[in-house]
Amino acid sequence: MRKFILCLLFxxxxxxxxxxxxxxxxxxxGELSPLIVIDAHRGIHxxxxxxxxxxxxxxxxxxxxxxxxxxxxxxALETVKSHSGTAIICLARTPQRERIYKWVGPVGEVVxxxxxxxxxxxxxxxxxxxxxxxxxxxxxxxAAHILLNSCGMEECDLRFVKDxxxxxxxxxxxxxxxxxxxxxxxxLTMKKLGFDSNEFEMVHVLDELKLYxxxxxxxxxxxxxxxxxxxxxxxxxxxxxxxxxxAIRAKYRK
Length: 254
Known about the structure:
Largest sheet: 8 strands, mixed
CATH topology of the largest domain: D-Maltodextrin-Binding Protein, domain 2
Structural class: alpha/beta
């Protein structure tokens, strides 16, 4: 009986998800230039990618280029929620997500808003919109949380799409009246699609978001603290008032 109990305890401690993870093996990303850039030739790079790679290295968890994965955003959120050893870059830290992940940051920021075609002269007032306007949003995104929880909208008022490119295509074709985009992400998406940025405008600011590295909830607290300390160290200014954090960000704004 004693031998059986010892074996059982051994299996419990080795079970995935029950023991805290002190190692990150996969980091998920979505394109958000200049924070995250996905390029066929240069691979996944950007200021947030370099910052995360740097603090991981400082915390003795070196990542290779192959450890960064570009997958569907909703799938990335679910994977990091349920699989130890995973993380996601540039996630907005909303109240709804606070207890789902562990957090290190901020590693960047964006302005999140609603975009429309200029010639439509669209304006947005939350109290007047439901259910008049067809509003596109990526499922599971920070924008979806804000519209549902801060603007008082219902899921039936929104049109859920898989990604930012789909949003812009539907907006241009007149199948949506408004779409949710970050300021940097909108410019990148329009450029990729070959759209004239002068045809679109942000008509309403939803929020100015701080973006974080979000880790699986089972990640070891001491490891998370080392990552945060490393990031805080990057942000410390030198005698000239400059920091490594600012230098990395400036490099990708050129």
